[in-house]
Specification:
This protein has 442 residues and is of the alpha+beta class. The chain has twelve helices and 23 strands. Strands 3, 7, 8, 9, 10, 11, 12, 13 and 16 form a nine-stranded mixed sheet that branches. A five-stranded mixed sheet has the order 20-19-21-22-23, with helices on both faces. Strand 22 and strand 23 form a beta hairpin.
């Protein structure tokens, strides 16, 4: 994509309304635009990142055996009355009426709807276990929406729901999602620490939240140093192997991790050299809640002997749009965003230091064409802008690599390749630069 043809309204100054790093940088990098309090449009650059994150989430859900569906944003109030949550949920739920005065709501979550869907479609024990998920926009009317996409009113969410015959089956589904979450966050370049958590308004008695370490995190966390040394990106997992899956969960849950609300220094089993104290951002939450919804909504299956069994359920959420902000909070510097390659909107930014110079234009056009032919996504800054302005914009938007072409380098048969994360610069031939960019991400 040529920068001159792209919609990328970057800002030089920090917007006054932005209180945290990710909100400031997303606005400055032209990723989002606020339409009203806590509600944002996603501009081309931001939308590309959102799609990258969504696809990683989808691939790991699919790998676990979950089936993707899509449920509507607007739900009938009657469903929520059956579960008892319509009045209990509170003012965060946006309640509306259609033209026929039917009471509706903009879904803040989907336990009721998925339970009704499963109830209507499954009758026999032979049809369980099942896991179904969707990636859909939600709305919660926060009293004080703030921090950009980290705490907005409208947000993109992946929620998965499991259906099992008994507790043991439900626990295995829970374990699958536990492992799928570890893999999901690792693929995004994040160190996610699972912590025992309260279930909140969704309910349930087995729950973990996944937090990533970031200086600006909302929670103080205390954890075993082992968590920071674990790498799950290339871990091979067989989701049909209950013993392996359970072993992975045990490996993580046997290590100490607690937020400040649950941490008791007097009872902490770790020595000071093993204990890491940091800030963390919640990026995922998993719950087991048994028959909390299946019983009131009549979601039952016939057992082997004809008995009626209320299915055991779990719920598993990842804030897809929130992750965009969380990744920035965990990966940035004073110049701007530093995208992990797996979620970057483009892999490389091609910078023409002297647009209008025949040799520079020809060299950039050749490199641009070869990058695209190799399937490498590139943003080519071909604008008639100062070199300093181009460098500042590229650092701000945080693409993993910058390929810099200028008259002096071309005269020596060289281009410059800069790695955004480390700042390391190498002068090399265009062919060698292309070969290096063609390698898989480390």
């Amino acid at each position: 994509m040529r920068r001159s043809q792209y919609f990328l309204p970057t800002l030089k100054e920090n917007p006054a309304e932005a209180q945290i790093v990710s909100h400031r940088l997303m606005l400055r990098a032209g990723m989002i635009r606020q339409e009203s309090a806590g509600i944002y449009s996603w501009l081309p650059l931001g939308f590309r990142v959102l799609q990258r994150i969504e696809q990683i989430v989808r691939e790991e859900q699919d790998a676990s055996g979950a089936l993707e569906v899509l449920m509507p944003t607007i739900q009938p109030a009657d469903l929520w009355r059956k579960s008892g949550r319509y009045d209990d949920y509170g003012a965060e739920m946006l309640r509306i009426k259609d033209r026929h005065e039917r009471e509706m709501l903009y879904g803040p979550t989907n336990e009721e709807m998925i339970t009704e869907m499963f109830r209507a479609g499954v009758k026999s024990y032979r049809d369980v276990p099942r896991m179904m998920y969707h990636i859909q926009w939600k709305f919660r009317d926060e009293v004080r929406p703030r921090f950009g996409v980290m705490r907005g009113r409208e947000f993109l969410m992946k929620d998965n729901y499991s259906f099992d015959l008994d507790y043991e089956g439900a626990k295995q589904s829970y374990n699958k999602m536990f492992v799928a979450y570890l893999r999901t966050f690792a693929r995004m370049g994040l160190k996610a620490i699972p912590m025992q958590a309260d279930s909140g308004p969704i309910g349930g008695d087995m729950s973990h939240e996944f937090l990533i370490v970031a200086e600006t995190g909302e929670s103080q966390i205390f954890a075993d140093r082992d968590f920071l040394d674990m790498d799950w990106k290339d871990q091979k997992v067989d989701y049909q192997d209950a013993e392996q899956i359970g072993g992975i969960v045990k490996h993580f849950t046997s290590r100490y991790a607690a937020t400040d609300e649950k941490h008791d220094p007097a009872k902490c089993p770790l020595s000071p050299d093993r204990l890491v104290e940091a800030r963390g951002i919640e990026v995922g939450h998993i719950f087991y809640f048994g028959t909390k919804y299946s019983k009131p909504l009549g979601c039952v299956v016939s057992g082997a002997n004809g008995e009626q069994i209320a299915v055991e359920m779990g719920s598993y959420g990842i804030g897809v749009s929130r992750l965009t902000g969380a990744i920035i909070e965990a990966s940035h510097d004073d110049a701007g965003i530093i995208w992990p390659e797996a979620v970057a909107p483009f892999k490389v930014g091609l910078i023409n230091l002297r647009s209008g110079d025949a040799k520079c234009d020809a060299a950039c056009a050749d490199i641009y064409g070869k990058l695209r032919q190799a399937g490498i996504e590139v943003l080519y800054d071909d604008r008639e802008e100062t070199a300093g302005g181009k460098f500042a914009d590229m650092d701000l938007i945080g693409l993993p690599w910058q390929l810099i072409v200028g008259p002096r380098g071309l005269a020596a048969g060289k281009v410059e390749l800069k790695e955004r994360r480390t700042g390391k610069r190498d002068e090399l031939s265009a062919e060698d630069a292309l070969a290096r960019l063609g390698r898989p991400a480390a």
